[in-house]
Structures are given as structure tokens and as C-alpha cells.
Request: fold
Amino acid sequence: MILTAGLAAAVVAVFLVTLMVGNTFYGLDKVARVLLGEAVPGASFTVGELRLPRASLGLVTGLCFGIAGVTFQTMLRNPLASPDIIGISSGASAAAVVGIIVFSLNETIVSFLALGAALVTAGAIYLLANRRGFAGTRLILIGIGVAAMLDSVVTYVLSRAASWDLQVAMQWLTGSLNGATWSSVAPVAIACAVLVPVLLLNQRNLGVLRLGDDSAAALGVRVQGTRIVLIVSAVALLAFATAASGPIAFVAFMAGPIAARIVGPGASLALPAGLIGSLLVLVADLVGQFAFDNRYPVGVITGVLGAPYLVYLLIRSNRSGGSI
Amino acid sequence: MTTDHQLSAEQLTLAYGDRTVVEGLDIAIAAGRITAIVGANGCGKSTLLRALARLISPREGEVTLDGMSLQRQPSREIARTLGLLPQRPVAPEGIAVADLVGRGRHPHQRMLARWSPRDYEVVSDALTATGIADLADRPVDELSGGQQQRVWIAMALAQETDILLLDEPTTFLDVAHQIEVLDLLTDLNRERGTTIVMVLHDLNLAARYADVLVAVRDGHVHASGSPEEVITEQLVGDVFGLECRVILDPLSGKPLVLPSGRHHVV
Reply:
């Protein structure tokens, strides 16, 4: 509880720093006045209209990625089972890219298109993995293959959209908060408000599901029903976040294991992982914007962090079988 | 606790896909006693236990708890009366003993409610009863097989069910730990009146520890009754296809099976 509160405090702190830092620095007092709705010359536009939507998008997408990722990892007892590794993010990305670039759809429709594609992808992977008895490892391997296929769809569509600039391409390849507006934040925020409580309410059931299907059923958990609620909620969170910011690389994958290191085994990881997700995205975006001469999209920074971690986990899980 | 919960099955048919494993089976579990289900590999005894624990739905017939079909009772409510220790339960990596045992309280807890003093008390009692109180903070995956099995039994105790089903609770254990687990289950039966139903491979241990033996063959109950009634040379031949001699176990006074085999018999 204390650790989770500490994480929440860290998220608030980084969120405020994100609002303060930029080409022009605004002190905490001015940021606070803007947040309270006062008109502050200069700050109202820069902080209120430019930085606040960007920071908010980082906050909510990070939360979505973190919670969705850890839900999958916990349920399948494997850190590699994160939805961004097993192709569900790629499904959402592919649908969003096709929707935006080929059909020029608006943001809300793209969100639902991404949701539909993510659910279909998750369902397809599940069915393919389930053909001769369910096995988590097979699901992960099939998912990695599906991810590769869908990523190539994204690359193909982007390569055909010659007039589009690199910024847009980067958003759909690695994820970016550039171009954050309130209309892109709104669908994700609403999805969070509805689905995060659903997942939090199911944490105790999820904790029992980890003992295996038989034990969970014997303890009175409706195994299939609970699993479907968890999968659909997590996939929906991920899809809405992906539709808004692109698949910010490895956040869903890294947040859970980091949260597990912090709060220790046995505890519920959903909220800590969500907060770690927000922290990762906000900090990585700060680094990407201001740490180098060039500005990099947030997904490039999280990708640089996440890729070595993936290699480390692959080596480790080869030894121990691996679980979160 | 009361011991009058009645678990039984009528005209039970169980199948996986096209393959019928159990057909038209009737069984009534003796309340407050220890029942061992025995039979050859693939005879349907584990499947029968899974059906009694509502893990698989009957193709035909029904399993009833206190006269009411399991299918028509809320799973959570059943979980307060009927517990199960599966053959290979999964311990999440790194989980502490007390934490795992605490999961047994699940059916007694409401969705968001905090742990009650009673929850803590029951878990503490379960740890003591299984002799693992001093291991409470250790990670389960670091314990020996025998200790792990006691942790799972402690979890089943924390569930506070009057009926406990166990699928081969002694598999993967050495002989000393097998005896330890069966003694523990006998304590549980005698002290709390818990009805125990277990699938056992070892006929001699089943004959010694069970009040009632149920011999399953080809998906039917071939014989059931006291060990003395069930363990005969004829029955072991019919059920296991094994030639043997049955003598009286000088330690327990129960029947003891001595397999003949083709070698080393004088």
C-alpha cells in the first residue's frame, strides 16, 4: 500500500515536471494556476493547450499499457506473454494505420477499429494456441509470429503513404505523444475510467487463477468467465491506448516485472504496474524531448530500454521456465 | 463443523469429446469417513474425482451435494463445503507459504473486503495443523516436495470445507513423506470430522488408511466397501490384471497385497 502510494506520488511529481519543462520554463506556481483554470499570460497556452494534453496522454496510455501488460503476464504466468510481444498491440496498430492512412477515419472511429482488431487478434492467437490443449508457451510463440506479420502490414501501409512525414510513421512504428490533443486523450481516459475498476475488482480472482485452473475452480472462481472478463478488459485498454499514441514500445512488457520487483511477490500488481507504466512513458518522453540535440518519440526511448530487457528475460526464462 | 454433507453421483456418464471414460456410475461418499478410489491407469478414477469436484460437467446423470445438483449451485458456495487438491497445483513464483495458504480463504471473502480476524486465525491454525508454521514466510518454490504438499493441504484446510477431495496426494513423494501426508489427512478426519475422498495408486496404503475402498474398472464401480471386503486376490486380478497374494498386514491388521510377478517368487 505504502509503495503504491509512493509510486502514485512519483507519477504526480513527474507529471508536474512535464508541465513545467519545455522551451520556456514555468514555475510550479504558474503551472498550478493554469491547472486551476486561471488565465496566465503565455503559460495558459503553452501549459494548458500544448503540454497538458501531451502529459495527460502519456499518463493514461502508460497506465493502460502497464495494467494491460501485467494482466496478461500474471494470467499466463509468463512475462513474455505481454500483449505487445504476442501481437495484440500489432493488431491494434495495423488497424489504426489502415484506418488513418487508407480510409482517413477520425480518432474515435479509429479507436474502435483498433479495439476490434486487437480483440480479433487476441481471439485468433488464443484459438491457434488452443488447438491441441492450451499451452502458454505455444501461445507466446504463435503470438510472436502474428506480431511479425502485423508489423509488416504497418510497415507496408506506411511505405505506401509517401506524403506522410516521418513523425506519423514513427508514431505507428514505436509510439509517440506528438500530436496529442484532447480529442485523442478523451477515448483513452474514458476507457480507463470504465475498465481499470473492472480489472482492479478482479485482482483477487486473478490471484487465485494463478494457482492453476483446477485449484481456482475448486476455490469457487468461475474460471472461463473471469478469464474472458480479464482478457477483454485488458485488450480494450491496450487498444484504446494504442489508437491514441501508437504502440509505445515495451511499456506493457516492462511495467509488470518492474512492479513485481518493487512490491514483492504475492501482492496484486495491477495498480503498481499501471503507475510504473505512466512513469515510464512520462520520463521517457521527457528524455526523448530534451536530453538530446534531436527530439525522439517516446517509443524510441522505451524501445532502447526494453529491448535489452527482453533479451535478458528470454535468457532467464530459458533457464527457469520463468514467471512474473 | 458438521459432517452430514452428502456427496453422491447418480447414473454418471463422463466423456472427453467422443471418448466415454465413465458410464452410468453410481457412488455415494460416506460422510465423515476416508474413502480411497483405486483402479488401474486410465480406468476413469481421476476423471470421477474431477466430476465430484465439478471440474467437468457430466454428459449424463448428475453429481449432487446435499441432494442438489452441483451444476445448479453457485461455485463459490460449493467451495465453502467442497475442497479439492489437484494432482499438480501451481505455485506462483516466489509466493510465500502464508500467502499461498491464505488463498484458501477466497470463497469466504467478499470481492473488496479486507481480511477479517477470522481469516488470519484460520490460516494460522492451518499452518500449525500441518506443521509448517515456522515456514510461513519462506517462498513455496524453495521447499521440498513433502513440505510443498503440506502447504497445499494447509491451503485446503484454510478453505474450511467439510469435504476434501485429493487427486493422488502422495505421488511424487518418497515413502516417509507419503506416510506423513496420509497421517495428516487421518488427523484431519478424526479431529475435525472432515470427509476425505482421495485417488490413490498404492493399494496397500489405500487399504491401510481408507475406511472405504472404491475399486473402479473401465468406468464402473467394480466393488466398494471396507478394505477387507474389497482387497481380495480375485478382485486385484480383475481390476488390475495382477496375480497376487493377499495376507494380513501384521502392523495394521488390514489386507496387504503381495504381487506375484514373473521373477523372484519362490
